[in-house]
Amino acid sequence: MAYSVEGRRRASGGMLPLLALSTVAEYYRLPWKPPVTAGLLAANTLVYLRPSFIDPFIPHINEVWFNPNLILKHKDLKRFFLSPFYHLDEPHLVYNMMSLLWKGIKLETSMGSSEFASMVFALLGMSQGVTLLLAKSLHVFFDYERAFYSEYSVGFSGVIFALKVVLNSRDEDYTSVYGILVPTKYAAWAELILVQMFMPSASFLGHLGGILAGILYLKLKRSSHSGLDPVSMVVRGVTRAVTLPLRFLSSLVRSRRRRITGRGRVGRGQSGVWRCQSCTYDNSGLQSVCEMCGLGRGRGNGWSVNQRQTHSSSSDIPLDELRRRRVERFS
């Protein structure tokens, strides 16, 4: 998670040995050891532990809080690039690193170390940039200054959410997110909402920026293979990414609607239904008179709608008489 609680004290819960044991167990069973994932795990852990041999060379957490206001006001790139590698306490660090361990191994094994490293670097910059853009937009258009624009946050979870989007982009299966079964490709969105519900201190904007960065990365990657204009794809990708939740909800609503067209009863194709040749109304097989025009069902009038029509209407009733019968029938 990316926490937005300023001044939170570190709590030592003895969870680092659990992280070390899980990492060793995962790498021991792998025939090929993904080096970039291991490097990211080591970097985040060393920054948190701050051993004496590197302590003089790395900034304090108070100097690298991700704060949109300070970043734009002072053009502080240190906050922009270094804040993902800082964590508030052991649970914060271990939760993120356990998630990174699983996703990193799967992605780096499938795409190779060099491509994975470049992707992580791109997703880090894109997730931070999208979060900064969202915070500035909310401040300018909705005056959300204290809620997001002046918020302090740190953590690697923005990148982790982006990795989750990339990892699940082509998965058509279902997965469980905190006990709720959802389509795997939308698991990041479900986790975004559930995490915010159960942990309000988590940085909603940072997680959202990671998801949008992952979607944008996939759009740009596809455009690079198709030879499309990258500038147009960036604008289109950002637009589609921002409106994705609304389009997803709209598709769910549309899928539940049932379209009913044509004349007659719903359920065409069922047995026990006959069609009047005069007005083409579908009547129940239990009725001997057409409900619409009042014409009796007799020889030559009425056939099952399951049967193919092989002869034309034999009714000689004038059109005016047919209309009069309809009016009388429903008056």
From TrEMBL:
<feature type="domain" description="RanBP2-type">
    <location>
        <begin position="270"/>
        <end position="299"/>
    </location>
</feature>
<comment type="similarity">
    <text>Belongs to the peptidase S54 family.</text>
</comment>
<keyword id="KW-0863">Zinc-finger</keyword>
<dbReference type="InterPro" id="IPR022764">
    <property type="entry name" value="Peptidase_S54_rhomboid_dom"/>
</dbReference>
<keyword id="KW-0472">Membrane</keyword>
<keyword id="KW-1133">Transmembrane helix</keyword>
<dbReference type="InterPro" id="IPR035952">
    <property type="entry name" value="Rhomboid-like_sf"/>
</dbReference>
<dbReference type="InterPro" id="IPR001876">
    <property type="entry name" value="Znf_RanBP2"/>
</dbReference>
<keyword id="KW-0812">Transmembrane</keyword>
<keyword id="KW-0479">Metal-binding</keyword>
<protein>
    <recommendedName>
        <fullName>RanBP2-type domain-containing protein</fullName>
    </recommendedName>
</protein>
<keyword id="KW-0862">Zinc</keyword>
<dbReference type="InterPro" id="IPR036443">
    <property type="entry name" value="Znf_RanBP2_sf"/>
</dbReference>
<keyword id="KW-0378">Hydrolase</keyword>
<feature type="transmembrane region" description="Helical">
    <location>
        <begin position="187"/>
        <end position="218"/>
    </location>
</feature>
<dbReference type="Pfam" id="PF01694">
    <property type="entry name" value="Rhomboid"/>
</dbReference>
<feature type="transmembrane region" description="Helical">
    <location>
        <begin position="116"/>
        <end position="135"/>
    </location>
</feature>
<keyword id="KW-0645">Protease</keyword>
